[in-house]
């Protein structure tokens, strides 16, 4: 009886709704591009403009380590021509899914692969694992932009010229951002350049601008900070006389508040310098909803809190 | 509907069936939480696997995960056998211990690697159709479909082969042993199947959904029948219904598929819990109310039997003398009249012949507690059903 029921359900499911997916594809001749994190979504929108359909899987404030798919994401992926993702295990098991898709007619592109492994920050214990938060190095993000342009031009040669123009405009914008960031950080004395945050997202940023970066939690936001971690970090903050520590938009602020209490209880005053955008941009339409805006906001927050 | 959507519903339905079968036995054996325990205790297996291979995608990790699942079961069984603690306590003792071993191993040796259960077992139904199995370059379908399909075939085969043994050892361990098959072997077999199903289904649909699919359909079926075969069939039907219906809920809401299926499972159980014919909460409440009225009826009949005075048998007397509220008095009077136990003439109540006999029998039953005489009364009154 069980088998009969099962067969019945299966036939029901298969026969009841046989809509043509192809119809939808024909109506929409624009290139369908799926992106993962908000940083990549913003980048692809800047280069593709109105010529492509960009569908981001992760919304603002979503932690990529903990992203949960919705039913709509299935359709987005089914209809995708190109998929841009970060890689280096940032998107968890999704990375593996994308890697397997390479055999199909979709083109999944791991943007972090564009960066030479020598420049990546590796794991202390396991050589084949790297820190995935590469977008905080503006040079690397430029490489992302170049790769996106290249792929879009190949997939859609008729619009290649526009993509290249958009790329040039965007690269100038990034260049301007780099100059502004550098001059803003100049104002901060080198010994004050210590960044204490909730998880290890800012290592590439630190490497670029001479910051010592300390994350309370490990790389994965899923692990919890231990008591010893908090105590050790509190002692470190007092020793270095650090003025402010930072919350991240996509990580609960509880642990950082615990750290602040631990430091304050030892008679040292440390402030919460503000919220930094680490694994996701701000909400769409706001200033911090773009990569450039997010970067400027972070720098302003860091510099004014540590000065 | 795209082929990806069909595949998702197919995988969800197969997982539902593969979970409902061991789930039914787990619920009957009061071991339902073992699936939740396994979903946590596999962490050390995954961590050790990673230390050996240094590769998050190695199949060895999943193999070791299933092995840790079986170790969990063995340890739980061992603690239970001491007889010092109950089933659920033993489960609660074992899995946090194993899970924390995994957490400590990560904290000591791999803090800067993104290593957790989610990173190794996919656990996302939405992506299952994109993880294809390729043999010699041809696409033969999603990998999880093959994995859970194989698990289902093994489970169903074992169920058919050992149905009698499973049934006897679930309900009567002593009888099973005296009939010559060891309840321990059946138990370990069932638990190993549960462990493998949990890990395999975990990879296909995620932890919470596996736990929900193991327990909710079986628990709902448990409230509806006392026949093992019917319970299995009902659990399977509930599981498949929730899987397919839950998928469409997710589609309408653009929400997490596993979340929607779990919600539907919860609703199915709630409906059964409320409306099941004999074990449902509404049926139970009705029965208790009815019993209360019947106790009052009996008191009333005894009163009539003991009093010949007209004033004691006046309708209004019920309110004044026995101190009943008007509504209750009316319910009792109606019930007695409906059963032809009393007649009311000019507001004076008298016992009929039937009423007289009923009262004698009831008193006799209450005094001697022998229920031979009241067999025919059981059909009409809840009070005598034990």
UniProtKB/TrEMBL annotation, chain A:
Gene Ontology MF annotations: metal ion binding
Keywords per UniProt: Coiled coil, Metal-binding, Signal, Transport
Listed SUPFAM superfamilies: Helical backbone' metal receptor (SSF53807)
Domain of life: Bacteria
Keyword S-adenosyl-L-methionine: no
Gene Ontology CC terms: cell envelope
InterPro entries to which the protein is assigned, alphabetical: AdhesinB (IPR006129), Bact_metal-bind_prot9 (IPR050492), Lipoprotein_PsaA-like (IPR006128), ZnuA-like (IPR006127)
Residue ranges of coiled coil: 160-191
Gene Ontology annotations of biological process type: cell adhesion; metal ion transport
Pfam families reported for this sequence: ZnuA
Localization, UniProt: Cell envelope
Family, as annotated: Belongs to the bacterial solute-binding protein 9 family.
Annotated protein name in UniProt: Manganese transporter
TrEMBL record, chain B:
InterPro entries with a match to the protein in the record: ABC_BtuC-like (IPR037294), ABC_TroCD (IPR001626)
Main location: membrane
Transmembrane segment boundaries: 6-28, 37-54, 60-78, 90-107, 144-163, 175-193, 205-224, 231-250, 256-276
Keyword Transmembrane tagged: yes
Record SUPFAM superfamilies: ABC transporter involved in vitamin B12 uptake, BtuC
Listed GO CC annotations: ATP-binding cassette (ABC) transporter complex
UniProt GO BP: response to zinc ion; transmembrane transport
Subcellular location as annotated: Cell membrane
Entries under PANTHER family matching the protein: ABC-TRANSPORTER METAL-BINDING PROTEIN, METAL TRANSPORT SYSTEM MEMBRANE PROTEIN CT_070-RELATED
Designated name of the protein: Iron chelate uptake ABC transporter family permease subunit
Source species: Winogradskyella endarachnes
């Amino acid at each position: 009886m069980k088998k009969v029921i099962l067969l019945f359900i299966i036939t029901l499911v298969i026969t009841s709704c046989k809509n043509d997916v192809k119809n939808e594809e024909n109506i929409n001749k624009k290139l369908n591009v799926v992106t993962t994190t908000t940083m990549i979504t913003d980048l692809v929108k800047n280069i593709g403009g109105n010529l492509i359909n960009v569908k981001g899987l992760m919304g603002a404030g979503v932690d990529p380590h903990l992203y949960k798919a919705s039913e709509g994401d299935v359709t987005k992926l089914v209809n995708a021509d190109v998929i841009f993702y970060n890689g280096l295990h940032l998107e968890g098991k999704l990375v593996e899914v994308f890697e397997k898709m390479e055999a199909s007619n979709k083109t999944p592109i791991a943007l972090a692969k564009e960066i030479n492994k020598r420049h990546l920050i590796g794991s202390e214990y396991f050589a084949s694992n790297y820190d995935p938060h590469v977008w905080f190095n503006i040079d690397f993000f430029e490489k992302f932009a170049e790769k996106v342009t290249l792929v879009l031009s190949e997939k859609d040669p008729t619009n290649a010229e526009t993509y290249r123009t958009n790329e040039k405009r965007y690269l100038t914008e990034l260049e301007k951002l780099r100059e502004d960031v550098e001059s803003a950080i100049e104002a901060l004395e080198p010994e004050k350049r210590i960044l204490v945050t909730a998880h290890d997202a800012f290592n590439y940023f630190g490497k670029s601008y001479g910051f010592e970066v300390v994350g309370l939690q490990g790389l994965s936001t899923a692990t919890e900070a231990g008591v010893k971690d908090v105590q050790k970090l509190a002692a470190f903050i007092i020793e270095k006389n650090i003025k402010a520590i930072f919350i991240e938009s996509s990580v609960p602020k509880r642990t950082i508040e615990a750290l602040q209490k631990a430091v304050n209880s030892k008679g040292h005053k440390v402030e919460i310098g503000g919220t930094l955008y680490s694994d996701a941009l701000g909400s769409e339409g706001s200033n911090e909803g773009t990569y450039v805006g997010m970067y400027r906001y972070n720098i302003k927050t860091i510099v004014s809190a540590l000065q | 509907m795209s082929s990806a959507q069909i595949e998702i519903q197919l995988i969800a339905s197969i997982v539902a069936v593969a979970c409902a079968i061991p789930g039914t036995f787990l619920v009957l054996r009061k071991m339902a939480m073992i699936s939740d325990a396994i979903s946590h205790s596999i962490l050390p297996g995954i961590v050790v696997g990673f230390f050996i291979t240094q590769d998050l995608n190695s199949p060895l990790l999943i193999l070791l995960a299933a092995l840790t699942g079986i170790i969990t079961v063995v340890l739980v069984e061992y603690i239970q056998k001491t007889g010092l603690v109950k089933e659920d306590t033993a489960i609660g003792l074992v899995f946090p211990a194993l899970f924390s071993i995994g957490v400590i191993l990560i904290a000591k040796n791999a803090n800067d690697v993104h290593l957790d259960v989610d990173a190794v077992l996919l656990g996302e139904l939405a992506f299952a159709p994109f993880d294809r199995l390729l043999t010699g370059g041809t696409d033969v379908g999603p990998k999880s479909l093959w994995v859970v399909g194989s698990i289902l075939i093994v489970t169903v085969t074992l169920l058919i082969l050992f149905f009698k043994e499973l049934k006897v050892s679930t309900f009567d361990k002593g009888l099973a042993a005296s009939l010559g098959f060891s309840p321990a072997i059946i138990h370990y077999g069932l638990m190993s199947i549960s462990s493998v199903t949990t890990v395999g289904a975990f990879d296909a649909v995620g932890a919470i959904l596996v736990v929900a699919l193991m327990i909710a359909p079986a628990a709902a079926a448990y409230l509806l029948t006392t026949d093992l075969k019917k319970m299995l069939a009902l659990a399977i039907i509930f599981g498949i219904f929730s899987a397919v219906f839950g998928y469409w809920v997710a589609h309408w809401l653009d929400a997490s598929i596993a979340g929607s299926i779990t919600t539907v499972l919860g609703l199915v159980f709630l409906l059964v819990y409320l409306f099941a014919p004999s074990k449902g909460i509404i049926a139970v409440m009705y029965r208790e109310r009815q019993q209360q009225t019947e106790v009052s009826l009996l008191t009333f009949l005894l009163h009539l039997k003991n009093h010949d005075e007209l004033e004691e048998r006046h309708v209004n007397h019920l309110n004044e003398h026995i101190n009943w509220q008007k509504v209750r008095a009316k319910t009792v009077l109606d019930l007695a009249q409906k059963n032809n136990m009393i007649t009311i003439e000019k507001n004076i109540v008298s016992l009929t012949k039937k009423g007289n006999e009923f009262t004698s029998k009831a008193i006799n039953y209450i005094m001697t507690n022998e229920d031979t005489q009241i067999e025919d009364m059981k059909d009409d009154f809840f009070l005598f059903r034990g």
